[in-house]
């Protein structure tokens, strides 16, 4: 569906349940909370469902946001609203990424998906998906513009959307950044965002524990294919030893990605205790399509930023499967 159709569908409904993917990043939370502010400005009733608590680094986005972590309360709210309700998933590439309660959330009808991930086949009832966009936050801003309230955004709403954009563009470094992205960011600054303040909260707010975690993760660095591929790892033991969480590891993949010779950086993350899952993040430079590689392992994402999960594999086994796939992707890119 188009942006206009999405705006019309939203305008016709009074009550909303918003959700995003598990282990939410800046775009997931920023776009979700930004849309919550927009809907509340319009006099709508909103609940933001999160399966996990908001990471400390993003706590500055939470004031005034109606967050609910109990799925039974969310479903009860939806039942009370009758037919006058809509569920919306933001920045979520597939139903499984909504978490263990995804099926219950998607039982709210109509269920709208707003996303910019390649490979999103459009779960739910309604789909506004634009893979060329820099971020879901950029799309939510355009939705506000379509609804005629972009010039009325509060400072807090603008801050949420700016955070979404700046985090998902790598501070405007990724190829997905366009002139429109900068125009949106400029308007959000006009609405009260202070870029230096946002960046300080996001990037200059580390603990000594996270610094020690960085040291431990970078010590695992291995390179392949004549240093074109760099792989780092994080384990539960590292987190326990440094008193950190997986959120503290977010962004560490940019260290190997920044090396001149490296074309693809890989981050292997051991799953939570009691699971046999390895989470894999892929970041590329240039035209290498890591979304295509991730899709081979039932994952997805963007051309230069993608991810997948493997079950029942050790990190060494996961790496052994990835390297040939990445080699093929690099060769295909070189043969263009």
From TrEMBL:
Pfam annotation, one family: DHH
Gene3D superfamilies hit by this protein: 3.10.310.30, inorganic pyrophosphatase (n-terminal core)
Name of the molecule in the record: Bifunctional oligoribonuclease/PAP phosphatase NrnA
Record-annotated DDH domain positions: 17-165
Listed EC numbers: 3.1.3.7
One annotated GO molecular function: 3'(2'),5'-bisphosphate nucleotidase activity
Family annotation (PANTHER family): BIFUNCTIONAL OLIGORIBONUCLEASE AND PAP PHOSPHATASE NRNA
Organism whose genome encodes this protein: Candidatus Electrothrix aestuarii
The keyword Hydrolase appears for this protein: yes
Hydrolase among keywords: yes
Keywords associated with the record: Hydrolase
Annotated DHHA1 domain residues: 228-323
InterPro entries named among the record's database cross-references: DDH_dom, DHH_sf, DHHA1_dom, Oligoribo/pAp-PDE_c-di-AMP_PDE
Top-level division of the source organism's lineage: Bacteria
């Amino acid at each position: 569906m188009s942006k206009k159709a999405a705006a019309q569908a939203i305008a016709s409904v009074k009550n909303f349940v918003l959700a995003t993917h598990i282990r939410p990043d800046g775009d997931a939370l920023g776009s979700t909370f930004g849309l919550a502010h927009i809907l509340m400005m319009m006099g709508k009733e909103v609940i933001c469902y999160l399966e996990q608590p908001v990471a400390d680094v993003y706590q500055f986005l939470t004031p005034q946001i109606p967050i609910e972590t109990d799925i039974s309360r969310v479903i009860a709210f939806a039942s009370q609203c009758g037919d006058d309700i809509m569920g919306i998933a933001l920045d979520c590439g597939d139903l499984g990424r909504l978490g263990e309660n995804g099926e219950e959330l998607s039982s709210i009808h109509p269920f709208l998906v707003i996303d910019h991930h390649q490979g999103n086949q459009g779960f739910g009832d309604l789909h506004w998906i634009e893979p060329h966009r820099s971020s879901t936050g950029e799309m939510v801003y355009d939705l506000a513009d379509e609804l005629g309230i972009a010039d009325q955004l509060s400072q807090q709403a603008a801050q949420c959307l700016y955070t979404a954009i700046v985090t998902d563009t790598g501070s405007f470094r990724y190829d997905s950044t366009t002139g429109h992205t900068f125009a949106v960011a400029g308007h959000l600054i006009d609405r009260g965002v202070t870029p230096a303040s946002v960046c300080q909260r996001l990037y200059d707010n580390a603990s000594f524990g996270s610094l020690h975690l960085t040291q431990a993760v970078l010590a695992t660095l291995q390179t392949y294919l004549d240093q074109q591929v760099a792989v780092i790892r994080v384990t539960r033991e590292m987190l326990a030893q440094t008193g950190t969480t997986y959120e503290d590891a977010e962004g560490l993949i940019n260290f190997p990605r920044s090396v001149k010779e490296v074309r693809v950086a890989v981050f292997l993350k051991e799953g939570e205790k009691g699971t046999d899952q390895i989470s894999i993040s892929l970041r590329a430079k240039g035209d290498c399509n890591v979304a295509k590689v991730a899709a081979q392992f039932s994952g997805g994402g963007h051309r230069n930023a993608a991810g997948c999960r493997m079950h029942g594999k050790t990190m060494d086994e996961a790496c052994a499967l990835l390297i040939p796939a990445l080699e093929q992707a690099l060769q295909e890119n070189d043969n263009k």
